[in-house]
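STRUCTURE:
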């Protein structure tokens, strides 16, 4: 298991550093000429799973996939509500946290941000939040999502509701696991006939966790009729299909956030 952790950290570091590494605090597309998103509310729902079941392999949220979009949205003036599947502390996959100075810029910022760290350790269960007042739903990834997102009927219904209401639904890396149980208003799979990205099968095999997860995300999205697209392993890749925004891996978190901003911009144009 330790070798898996070391491999995942090494692969992520190589591709993030060597191939268009995300810039955590780059400004997103301008909404009103000032680079801001006033009166915009985004609901971010994270995993509560801290173990890969069956087994004892620790898991959780991949921190960069939470912190990068969180700060991008907040810096643009949006209000972000952080919640989780079960409430309480969001488990952080320790493979996504390196020594000080060796992390993605957003993770470095988080490690010094006592306010956000307090939010992460005490989140409301997402079903306790009235979703009506939000403009977008964002699902950060991490392997934990593979173990609790698909089994949450409430999350599936929230995705369906936002889709039906024309709101933005976004997910990055393993976050699209939160889409696999959702349906469209007509009862067909939510991802059917939609362009979608997510952690690829080859990436899962590369990190040695293809036997640890309950299913391969790329394969499942395709089985549901999704038009899966991807870039090179561990390189940034994200896409938008109408109100659906998805990204492939941790390095895609910045671009995923940018596309969410573009989608929000289109709604107020």
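SEQUENCE:
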């Amino acid at each position: 298991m330790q070798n898996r952790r070391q491999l995942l950290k090494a692969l992520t570091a190589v591709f993030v550093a060597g191939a268009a590494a995300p810039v955590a605090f780059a400004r997103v597309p301008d909404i009103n000429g000032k680079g801001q998103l006033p009166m915009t509310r985004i609901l971010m729902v994270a995993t509560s799973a801290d173990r890969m079941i069956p087994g004892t392999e620790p898991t959780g949220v991949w921190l960069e996939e939470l912190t990068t979009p969180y700060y991008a949205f907040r810096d643009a003036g949006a209000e972000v509500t952080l919640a989780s599947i079960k409430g309480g502390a969001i488990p952080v996959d320790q493979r996504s946290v390196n020594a000080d100075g060796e992390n993605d810029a957003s993770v470095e910022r988080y490690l010094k941000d006592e306010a956000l760290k307090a939010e992460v350790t005490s989140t409301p269960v997402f079903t306790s939040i009235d979703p009506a007042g939000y403009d977008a739903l964002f699902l950060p990834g991490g392997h934990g999502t593979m173990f609790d997102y698909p089994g949450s009927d409430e999350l599936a219904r929230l995705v369906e509701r936002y889709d039906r209401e024309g709101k933005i639904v976004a997910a990055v890396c393993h976050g699209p696991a939160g889409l696999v149980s959702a349906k469209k208003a007509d009862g067909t799979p939510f991802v059917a006939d939609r362009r979608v990205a997510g952690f690829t099968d080859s990436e899962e095999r590369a990190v040695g966790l293809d036997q640890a997860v309950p299913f391969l995300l790329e394969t499942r999205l395709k089985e549901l009729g999704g038009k899966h697209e991807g870039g090179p392993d561990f390189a940034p890749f994200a896409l938008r299909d109408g109100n659906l925004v998805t990204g492939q891996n941790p390095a895609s978190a910045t671009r995923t956030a940018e596309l969410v901003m573009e989608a929000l911009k289109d709604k107020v144009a």
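REMARK: The chain is about 35% helix and 15% strand.
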